[in-house]
Specification:
The protein is an all-alpha fold and 118 residues long. The chain has 7 helices and no strands.
């Protein structure tokens, strides 16, 4: 029963987010990912509330709606899918997925392929 509830909540969250306009990549980075005390860091270190984990899931779900500033679209899709999947698992109670979130949220891995050069 718990699995069905989690799946239903995940589908509802994705359905809701897909109808809303996408946040820009820079907004997600600034609001959720940047800094040692960021929402992402708190969730990835297991120091966040369940509400924080769900908020992070919503933020990272927005990334897939964007086109990468540079680099291969398929790479972007793969990286954002891994990040979204890990964040979703943590948001819906799988505390074991924190390690996958840490791996998928590796800034350098994504930035070296996709961040616009300054």
């Amino acid at each position: 029963m718990k699995t069905l509830t989690i799946a239903a909540l995940a589908i509802a969250a994705l359905s809701f987010s897909s109808t809303a306009p996408a946040l820009e990549i820079s907004d997600v980075m600034k609001d959720a990912m940047k800094g040692e005390a960021s929402l992402y860091q708190r969730v990835a270190k297991g120091q966040a509330s369940d509400d924080d984990a769900q908020l992070l899931f919503k933020y990272v779900s927005e990334l897939a709606k964007n086109t990468p500033p540079r680099g291969d679209q398929s790479s972007w899709d793969r990286k954002t899918k891994a990040l979204i999947s890990a964040a979703q698992q943590v948001a819906f109670g799988n505390k074991q997925a924190v390690r996958a979130l840490q791996t998928a949220g590796n800034c350098k891995s994504c930035h070296s392929s996709h961040k616009e050069e300054e």
